[in-house]
Specification:
Length: about 400
C-alpha cells in the first residue's frame, strides 16, 4: 500500500474553517446553531483531505472530535450528489453504543435525515423498515450488517463512501472476517476512510486490501492534552479480594463524581460490582449480556450523575462519551497499547483533568511491564490509600 501526503490546505483562520469548507447553507446554519465554530485538530487535518475524494487513513485518539471529521464530508458529498438512489454512505462501528452515537451526530447536523441504524440487540423488522424509508446513510455493527446483507435487505452496489470507525478496536474484537465480507460487497469506484486511534499492523493489512493510495493524516500528540491525564499504577497482592479492596480505597480517597472501572470479562464486571457493594460503594455494570434497552438505561443514569461508578467491559464501553469523567480504572490489565489508549482516553477531555489508574496484581506483571515499554506517558506508582479512620 502506498500513501500520499496531504495535497490540500485547510482554511487559514479557525473561525472561517467550517464556513469555507462546508458549502451547503443548511449544514452551515446547523453548525452555527450547535455552536460548532472552532475545529479540533483532527477535524482541521482530516476534513480537507476527505473532501478531495481520495481514500484516507486518519489516526485520531478517542475524544478528539473524529466523528464530525468524517460525518461532515460524507454529508457534504451526499448533498453534492443529490438526488441519491440507494445507499450513499456506510459507516461501520465496533459496538452498538458507538453506532448510536454516530447516528445522533449525523442527525444533529442534518435533522431531516434519519440514518438506518443496523445493530444487534434490536428487532430486525424495524431496521428493515428504516432501510426502506431512507437507505442513504447506514450506520451499523458488523454482525447485524452481515445478516441483512445476506438477506438482501441492504444493497451496497451504489455506495459511494464507507467509513471504518475505530478500525483498531474493530479488529481487536475479532471482526476482521465480517469487515472483509462487508467491504467486498462495495463497488470498485468508492471512497474509503479508515479512522483509528492506533495504526496497528493488522489495520495496515486491511487498509492495503481495500484502500487505493490513501492519504495519511497523522496528528502529533498534543502535549498539553496528554498532560491533563495523570497516569498512575498501584501494585496489589494476589489475594481474591485485594484488587476490590484497593479499588474501594481509591474511590474513597479520590471521591470522583464519575468513574469507569474497566474489566476484561463479563464475569469480572459482576464480581467487582458485588465486591464494591459489600464495601458500601454502589455501582452499575455494563456488559454485552445486557439488552440494548438495559444498556441505554444504565448509560442515561451514568450521564445524569444518578450513578457515579460504572463497571464495564471494553466491548460495552466503546463509544461512551461522558463529559467530565474524572477517573478511569484498569481493574484488569490488557496487554494491547491501543486498549489502554481507548480506556484512558475516556477522561481528560475538553480541557478537563483526569486520572487513569491501573491495579497490578502479580498475575498482571508480564502484561503490564510489556505494556509500559510501548506507552509514551510515564506511569507514576502510588500506594493503596490508608483509610482515614485508621490514619487518624
Amino acid at each position: 500500500m502506498t500513501t500520499e501526503t496531504l495535497p490540500v490546505e485547510a482554511p487559514k483562520t479557525e473561525e472561517s474553517f467550517f464556513l469555507d469548507l462546508v458549502k451547503h447553507p443548511s449544514i452551515r446554519g446547523q453548525l452555527k446553531t450547535l455552536n460548532i465554530i472552532t475545529p479540533t485538530p483532527v477535524q482541521r487535518a482530516a476534513i480537507p483531505a476527505v473532501l478531495t475524494g481520495q481514500d484516507c487513513i486518519v489516526e485520531a485518539q478517542t475524544g478528539s472530535g473524529k466523528t464530525l471529521a468524517f460525518v461532515l464530508p460524507v454529508l457534504s458529498r451526499m448533498i453534492d450528489a443529490s438526488p441519491v438512489d440507494g445507499t450513499f454512505g456506510l459507516i461501520i462501528t465496533p459496538t452498538r453504543e458507538l453506532a448510536l452515537q454516530v447516528r445522533n451526530v449525523v442527525m444533529s447536523v442534518v435533522p431531516d435525515l434519519q440514518p438506518a441504524c443496523i445493530i444487534g440487540g434490536a428487532k430486525q423488522e424495524g431496521q428493515i423498515r428504516d432501510l426502506r424509508n431512507d437507505p442513504r446513510i447506514i450506520v451499523g455493527t458488523p454482525g447485524r450488517l452481515i445478516d441483512l446483507i445476506e438477506q438482501r435487505k441492504i444493497d451496497l452496489r451504489n455506495c459511494k463512501m464507507f467509513v471504518l470507525d475505530e478500525a483498531d478496536e474493530m479488529l481487536s474484537m475479532g471482526f476482521v472476517e465480517e469487515v472483509r465480507a462487508i467491504l467486498s460487497k462495495l463497488p470498485k469506484q468508492r471512497q474509503g476512510l479508515f479512522f483509528s486511534a492506533t495504526m496497528t499492523q493488522r489495520v495496515g493489512q486491511l487498509a492495503e486490501s481495500f484502500l487505493v493510495k490513501p492519504l495519511r493524516v497523522e496528528l502529533e500528540p498534543v502535549e498539553e492534552t496528554s498532560q491533563l491525564i495523570e497516569h498512575l499504577f498501584c501494585r496489589v497482592d494476589g489475594g481474591l479480594t485485594s484488587k476490590a479492596t484497593a479499588l474501594a480505597a481509591f474511590l474513597e480517597e479520590y471521591k470522583p463524581k464519575s468513574a469507569i472501572v474497566f474489566c476484561n470479562t463479563k464475569s469480572d464486571t459482576e464480581l467487582v460490582q458485588i465486591l464494591l457493594r459489600k464495601r458500601g460503594t454502589e455501582s452499575e455494570r455494563l456488559n454485552s449480556d445486557l439488552s440494548q434497552k438495559e444498556r441505554e438505561r444504565t448509560m442515561n443514569k451514568f450521564r445524569s450523575g444518578e450513578v457515579k461508578i460504572l463497571v464495564a467491559t471494553d466491548v460495552a464501553a466503546r463509544g461512551i462519551d461522558v463529559k467530565d469523567l474524572e477517573l478511569v480504572v484498569n481493574y484488569a490489565i490488557h496487554d494491547q497499547p491501543e486498549t489502554y489508549v481507548h480506556r484512558t482516553g475516556r477522561t481528560g477531555r475538553a480541557g478537563k483533568s483526569g486520572k487513569a489508574l491501573s491495579l497490578v496484581a502479580p498475575q498482571d506483571f508480564p502484561a503490564f511491564y510489556s505494556l509500559q515499554k510501548k506507552l509514551p506517558p510515564s506511569l507514576a506508582e502510588v500506594q493503596v490509600p490508608v483509610p482515614k479512620v485508621v490514619a487518624a
